[in-house]
Amino acid sequence: MRHRNADTAGLAAGTLFDALFGDPQRGHPVAVFGSGVAASEKVLYRDDRVRGAVFAGWWIGIGVLAGVLARRLGSAGTTAAAFSALGGTSLCRIGDEIADALDAGDVDGARTRVAGLVGRDTTRLDEAGICRAAVESIAENTSDAAVAPLFWGAIAGAPGLLGYRAANTLDAMVGYRSEKYLRFGWASARLDDAANYAPARATAALVGVISGRPRDAWIAVRRYAGQHPSPNAGVVEAAFAGALGIGLGGRTEYPHGVEDRPRLGAGPGPRAADLRAAVTLSRRVQRASALAAVALRIIVGEGRRHLP
């Protein structure tokens, strides 16, 4: 009972702290975790699925264990876990900064800022490419950096928060379809897909309801999401495209090569005003998902309390 109450209070407090302060500029626990992953990869990497699966299982296990230890500290530990796992506030701040730079005619500044959001090559992006990259990242990361950790925090408390963040970080580091990571990163990518399956669809539903355009969002998801190479990113990006009346997708350059992403949505490509609308929508979805996660955590706790 004490753990359940601590998880509920900590989830609420950690969400509030993220909303107030965003990600710390130095010493972020996820960055420390990523440094450990990168260091161990240099030693353990092999072009092999089995080795990659062991690598993923090891680091996700460390994340879950860190959550178990955090839970033993009570609500303060769960608060720290939630604050570490969430990244929605900083995501939206960067989105606003990109739009501000574009409105001021500072395309170079906008290009520099969008490089902090996406893994693609941003060096030659024009204004349209910057807006498209930013909106796609905001859509995907509304799920990955806000709704998904809240979902797993509601289900499993601090271990769910940090276990999920470990899986998502691994995917961002080694889950690429490049020649180097196609096999070694396969397990990391698939585990992240599984962890985000339900949260991505919950995000798409919230996007439709909160935007006031549920039908448009649903039609876009049904028509376009399945064409995207990611089973989850396509869902949330299509929902944002339908809700905002824009079109996403197209030629995308990554360090490992070029991908021709499918068209998502029937509208024109996004501009700075659409980017601002995407940021506003993301913030509203994050607030709604935070309230839902705390409520779900209370329900889960009550249900377990009454089990024989």
UniProtKB/TrEMBL annotation:
It comes from the Bacteria. Pathway: Cofactor biosynthesis; adenosylcobalamin biosynthesis. Keywords: Cell membrane, Cobalamin biosynthesis, Membrane, Transmembrane, Transmembrane helix. Pfam families: CobD_Cbib. The chain crosses the membrane at residues 52-70. It is a multi-pass membrane protein. It is found in: Cell membrane. HAMAP family: CobD_CbiB. Belongs to the CobD/CbiB family. PANTHER family: COBALAMIN BIOSYNTHESIS PROTEIN CBIB (PTHR34308:SF1). Converts cobyric acid to cobinamide by the addition of aminopropanol on the F carboxylic group. This is Cobalamin biosynthesis protein CobD. It comes from Gordonia liuliyuniae.
